[in-house]
Write a structure and sequence with these properties.
The chain has helices at 32-39, 125-136, 209-213, 226-244; strands at 14-17, 26-29, 43-45, 53-55, 57-59, 70-81, 95-99, 109-121, 151-152, 155-157, 166-169. With 247 residues, the chain is α+β, with helices and mostly antiparallel strands.
Length: 247
């Protein structure tokens, strides 16, 4: 079972995907220093989809790329399109930024990477993503909020090395300031769909609003740790998606 590391440890981890449709994560970095070294490698490409991608996350062992398979996020990656660093609140923080394939002299495109003091559990990431963007005063791209989001490794168009740039900041790892780890309560989970419990739901159950609003028996989570609950919910969500034919 995945264990979150202590705050005084370099907890940065990252995985690699060889191309945009790849689903099997491969190890890329086991520390912030290793990740920075990888992000300093720039390649010349004819098209941006010719470059490998990366993600600053820890996956459950033996799983493939999907939000529900992510255990934790270890870095905040900010997608800065036409945003300036001038108003960013980065003083005292550790960070690295690199331009993307789309960067142009008159139209800047950056990926800003900030290592986190502690890995953030995947089910908290959406909340933390918003809060951290507000803290550093950068808008970013809300489309990059999902835990399993992947980013292209540094690259530049053929013959345009001068369009490729990097920036660095030295300081403390960004603290997500998580309170006590969130554990779902009956109130939080009262709208949990019954399909995740029932093995033979009616084909029309999901069209009935009353069915979605009916309180559920949560005794199956009694005695579980927060992490065990998260794993169980991922499995139930997968069953629900399968029954709804969403995948």
């Amino acid at each position: 079972m995945f264990q979150f590391e202590t705050a005084d440890t370099d907890s940065v981890r990252a995985v690699r995907f060889d191309f945009v449709k790849a689903v099997v994560p491969k190890p890329l970095a086991g520390s912030w220093a290793q990740l920075q070294a990888q992000l300093c490698i720039r390649k010349e490409t004819k098209r941006k989809d010719q470059r490998a991608l990366w993600s600053p996350v820890i996956y459950a062992p033996g799983t493939t790329r999907a939000n529900y398979n992510v255990d934790a996020v270890t870095c905040l990656v900010v997608d800065m399109d036409n945003e300036s660093f001038d108003h960013a609140r980065l003083d005292g923080l550790e960070w690295m930024a690199y331009t993307t394939w789309s960067n142009r002299p008159d139209e800047e495109h950056w990926h800003l990477v900030l290592p986190l003091k502690q890995p953030v559990p995947a089910h908290r990431w959406s909340e933390v993503w918003t809060r951290l963007h507000e803290r550093i005063n950068i808008v970013g791209d809300p489309a990059t909020k999902d835990p399993a989001r992947i980013f292209y490794l540094p690259q530049y168009p053929v013959g345009k090395l001068e369009w490729s740039h990097r920036r660095f900041g030295r300081g403390e790892f960004l603290d997500a300031e998580l309170d006590e780890l969130f554990v779902p309560t009956p109130r939080d989970m009262v709208r949990m769909p019954k399909a995740v419990v029932s093995r033979k739901p009616s084909k029309k159950y999901w069209k009935d609003e009353a069915w979605w609003n009916e309180p559920q028996d949560l005794s199956r989570f009694a005695g579980m740790t927060q992490q065990q609950i998260a794993v169980a919910l991922r499995g139930e969500l997968a069953e629900l998606r399968k029954s709804l034919s969403l995948d």
